[in-house]
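YjgP/YjgQ family permease: structure, please.
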Amino acid sequence: MRIDRDYYRIQKLDWYIIKKFLGTFVFMIALIISIAVVFDINEKIDKFMSNNATINGIIFDYYLNFIPYYTNLFSPLFVFLAVIYFTSKMANNSEIIAILSNGISFRRLLKPYMISAFVIAMFTFVFGSFIIPPANSTRIEFEQTYVDPRKKKTGDRDIQFKVGPGTIVYFDNFDLASNTGYNFSMDHFNDLELDSRLTAQTIRYDSAYKWTIRNYQIREFDGIHEKITTGTSIDTTLYIVPNDFIIASSDQQMMTSPQLRSYIKSQKERGMGNIQPFQIEYHSRIAMVFSAFILTIIGASISARKVKGGMGLNIGIGLALSMAYILFMTVSSTFAVKGNMSPFVAAWIPNIIFSGIAFFIYKKAPN
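Here you go.
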């Protein structure tokens, strides 16, 4: 079998398209994010001033982390618009026709597009999985302090989960500010039979898994016999911390992918039922890598044909498809959190649907 070495070699045409792709991608980011920052400043300036936010805090704690977060979040949209913009321009200038007329197939033409998409996808994955989450901690803390303090998680009610083999704890409510839980109980089971039950008015977290239980009662069961012990205070070790069960809507954004994977595993073992947003975040970071390739194929296939409507028509189609993609992401995530849809399916269903669209449009592309 003869190998076409020229196909795998990056040639002048490839470098030409790669430079246009990446250059337009950066231009789209700079343009749209600049507009987003201006609108965000206009919306939040009153809150910044009324809550005495400093200029340094606004610039370095908030916007320096705002820009990379939203750039990464909407990178599929930027990829799509960049491809449509510069490819439509090439088509209007008859560059695509000239390339295809010289015996270069559309499949071969997509090679520099795929290389560019790969570069963007890898940057998106690395930044989204390892670099942006720690920066999000600073941005979200700033938002909760100076923009909307109501978003800050202060506690929760009716908390129940497993802390060890046969051990289940329950908090009637927990106050995060004081690290104190109220109407606490801890049940120990042995082969589905209740061995002992501890109840207490309060339990307070100290540090390093150390908890102080106050005004407690311990009931130990041995057949028909029961032993009751009471006391005012006792220290114990529980391998849990408040953040294990007091979860804010933005917590998953502050975890790197390895931290997310570890957290999901530990919460599953404890029987916690509030991990869907974390699972969606974890799978979405991987799905986003492939979305760059799918949307690049769609954008290039739509824009390679010279049409009467010109660039404006292609950009209009691109915006419509971009909004449809984001809508699918939002709806599927909502079904996963509120309904019974698998978080894995919720993260991947936009890619699955748009893969079909990409295949159909690719087959219709000019050759």
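Notes: The longest strand covers residues 193-205.
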